[in-house]
């Protein structure tokens, strides 16, 4: 009755049950987290504005980016990729989206910051 096979089966069943329980608890704990990230972006200065030879307009901005993203970090967060995109409408395009700046937040301790920077990627509007 208490053969090797029987004991191995009981042990495996117990191990799988505990594993399933831990997976369920882990999954639930992540879903119960309600993050409340906040961010403010302010244009502090328009450094220059110029027309390119082909007619496109290019602008350089100084931005003040302030964010508190700490609540996004849980046991299940490896890192955050964040970006700032300018979205605007022109007669030619109903929606223009230009990526201006991005960053990778590797840990919770870096998730609350205020950065004073110019746009990392060129902000060019199509003619
Ligand atoms: C950037 O914005 C934050 C929050 O709005 C403010 O506290 C800080 O003084 C600003 N920095 C500059 C250089 O304007």
UniProtKB/TrEMBL annotation:
<keyword id="KW-0732">Signal</keyword>
<keyword id="KW-1133">Transmembrane helix</keyword>
<comment type="similarity">
    <text>Belongs to the SPCS3 family.</text>
</comment>
<keyword id="KW-0812">Transmembrane</keyword>
<keyword id="KW-0735">Signal-anchor</keyword>
<comment type="function">
    <text>Essential component of the signal peptidase complex (SPC) which catalyzes the cleavage of N-terminal signal sequences from nascent proteins as they are translocated into the lumen of the endoplasmic reticulum. Essential for the SPC catalytic activity, possibly by stabilizing and positioning the active center of the complex close to the lumenal surface.</text>
</comment>
<keyword id="KW-0472">Membrane</keyword>
<feature type="signal peptide">
    <location>
        <begin position="1"/>
        <end position="29"/>
    </location>
</feature>
<dbReference type="GO" id="GO:0006465">
    <property type="term" value="P:signal peptide processing"/>
</dbReference>
<protein>
    <recommendedName>
        <fullName>Signal peptidase complex subunit 3</fullName>
    </recommendedName>
</protein>
<keyword id="KW-0256">Endoplasmic reticulum</keyword>
<dbReference type="Pfam" id="PF04573">
    <property type="entry name" value="SPC22"/>
</dbReference>
<dbReference type="InterPro" id="IPR007653">
    <property type="entry name" value="SPC3"/>
</dbReference>
<dbReference type="GO" id="GO:0005787">
    <property type="term" value="C:signal peptidase complex"/>
</dbReference>
């Amino acid at each position: 009755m208490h053969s090797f096979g029987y004991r191995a089966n009981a042990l495996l069943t117990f191990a799988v049950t505990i594993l399933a329980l831990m997976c369920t608890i882990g999954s639930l704990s992540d879903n119960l987290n309600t993050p409340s990230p906040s961010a403010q972006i302010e244009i502090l200065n328009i450094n220059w504005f110029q027309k390119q030879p082909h007619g496109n307009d290019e602008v350089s901005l100084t931005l003040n980016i302030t964010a508190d993203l700490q609540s996004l970090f849980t046991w299940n967060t490896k890192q955050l990729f964040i970006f700032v995109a300018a979205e605007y409408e022109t007669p030619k395009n109903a929606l223009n989206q230009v990526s201006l700046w991005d960053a990778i937040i590797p840990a919770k301790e870096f998730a609350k910051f205020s950065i004073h920077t110019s746009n990392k990627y060129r902000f060019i509007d199509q003619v």
